[in-house]
Amino acid sequence: MAPSKARAAWPGQRPGPCLPRLVLLGCLGLAAGPAMTQEIFEERKEQCADCHGVGDAEAMQEAPALGGIDAYYALLQLVAFREGDRENAIMSSMVEDMSDDDLRAASDWIAELTRPAPSEGTPDAQRMEAGAALAEEHRCGSCHGAEYLGGSQMPPLRNQHEDYLAKALHDYKTERRIGARAAMVEIAEPLSDEDIDTLAFYLAHLTD
Ligand code: HEC
Ligand code: HEC
Fold this sequence. Notes:
CATH superfamily of the largest domain: Cytochrome c-like domain
Structural class: mainly alpha
Helix content: 40-55%
Bound molecules: heme C
CATH architecture of the largest domain: Orthogonal Bundle
Number of domains: 2
């Protein structure tokens, strides 16, 4: 339940791997300018884009769309992956050697991306109705926004990838992911597998 449990279980964690490098640069009187401290993100940016389906790329299975996520929330998540507070082998390996400046550059890049396109065509009306009723019942919009567009400490849900939404809800329900103030653990606890599928379908298929 406590975040420290997930932290202890994460083997890849190294305490502040980038700090000594920055301190060293400072000691030598070298300017730790943006070009130096953000270089790892710049090198990996294309990989980020490929997996997350930025531009023409097709997103990898269970990778979220990043467009629409605010810089502050993105930074919190990237730090959580780096420190082992959010468990995901792929993402942790992506950011474990990144400096704070790298993570800031990454979150600024994310904040500039366009949000995922609204669903095309007409989604199954019965499932949409069932999803709307569940979202209403559990008051999802009270935190994520009436249009599910999120905010500075709140991720957007609107037109997020269906498989990722379902995975995230399962991760909260099973306490594999705890997150800020454990709000979502409490929300996801009473949801059945079918509720989760229905909510994921509904949020992913909202039309404008
Ligand atoms: C090999 C595929 C892959 C690559 C490369 C990758 N990611 Fe990810 N990313 C994922 C997956 C999968 C998740 C979902 C993790 C989970 O389920 O907790 C994720 C999650 C995230 C999240 C959390 C989003 C949210 O809604 O909570 C952010 C932010 C993110 N990635 C940014 C990046 C950045 C920046 C890079 C490049 C430095 C990157 N990713 C590279 C696959 C990838
Ligand atoms: C009390 C406020 C609150 C309510 C109500 C709420 N959420 Fe959340 N939700 C949050 C917070 C805060 C986060 C970020 C948690 C974290 O740090 O991992 C979040 C994260 C999520 C995520 C992860 C998104 C991502 O990009 O990784 C999903 C999916 C989600 N919520 C779905 C829902 C659904 C569906 C409902 C309604 C059944 C709901 N939420 C109701 C506060 C809330």
